[in-house]
Amino acid sequence: MSASVRSFAQEAVAAVPVPPVATTAVPAAVPALMAPSAEYGVPRGGWDLQLPVTDIAVEAHNMINWVLNPVMAGVTVFVLGLLAWTMFRYRAAANPVPSTNSHNTTIEVIWTVVPALILVVIAFPSFRLLANQYDPPKADLTIKAIGHQWYWEYEYPDQGGFTFDSVMLTNEEAAARGTPKLLDVDNRVVVPVGATVKILTTAADVIHSFAMPAFYVKMDAVPGRINETWFKTDRPGVYFGQCSELCGTKHAYMPIAIEVLPKAQFDAWVAAKQKENGIEPKAAAAAPAEAAAPAAVAAAAAPVADAAAAAPAVQ
Questions:
Q1: pLDDT tens digits for 66-121?
Q2: CA–CA separation, 232 vs 56, rounded Å?
Q3: pTM for this prediction
Q4: How far from the centroid of its chain's Cα atoms is residue 259's Cα?
Q5: Sign, Cα dihedral of 34, 35, 41, 43
Q6: Between 20 and 30 A from 3 (CA), which of 18, 56, 130, 277?
Q7: Alpha-carbon distance 143 to 217, whole Å?
Q8: Distance CA 251, CA 211 (A)
């Protein structure tokens, strides 16, 4: 085809009017954003930990305040006092002729046995806390959290598998919303109050870490593998966390925001999200049922097979 013919054909195509395409606006599924509390789920600017809102967080909070901190304070005060007494008692002015002793069996036994006993005292609550943390109850909701440089992607597999990205708000957007800067995001994670939530976390590029201080949750998101953690809180509200792994230049701009809503509001949000993503609620609910069907068929067939095996053979 010559250049002139090709040019004429292109002009003819460009001159054809394009009919307008009618589109249907689908409202974005955004809940009525809850305002953050001044006490819960946000840094309070003090020396203490964030107030706990899960049973695991309460247990950890009590262990820190009533076991670890008193032990550390006691050891610190004792060593400081012993050092001050030694400096004063055995100073050169009071001991012109220094002692030549190099061993004391009693003291050596004491400074070996006492630290071991301190570790035993710390070990019992530590093991109990670890056992409770890594032995979760049956999950009511599963969420997959995928770390990217530098934002989070979330998936709700139990509700049809819809996904969304969660990106930090600018300072201006956070101020307009009335939330802390560097902590709030455009799309928050939404969970129902009182539900056991299982978090499956991984990463698409480098190692990230899913951390929520008020829940006592912190789990690395590693590319190529899935790690699991969980939480359950009975207190509605919005809670803020951050990626706590050094994941690159914008590590400080990768927050996590979780909004805990009453069950009815959570169900409404899920329905809106499913509509937004073209997911039929019935199809989403049927997926777990289809997965359980083979097991139910096998269980129903087992008594029949046993009866057939027990029946006498007919000659």
A1: 999 999 999 999 999 999 999 998 888 888 888 887 888 999 999 999 999 999 99
A2: 9
A3: 0.73
A4: 13
A5: positive
A6: 18
A7: 14
A8: 13
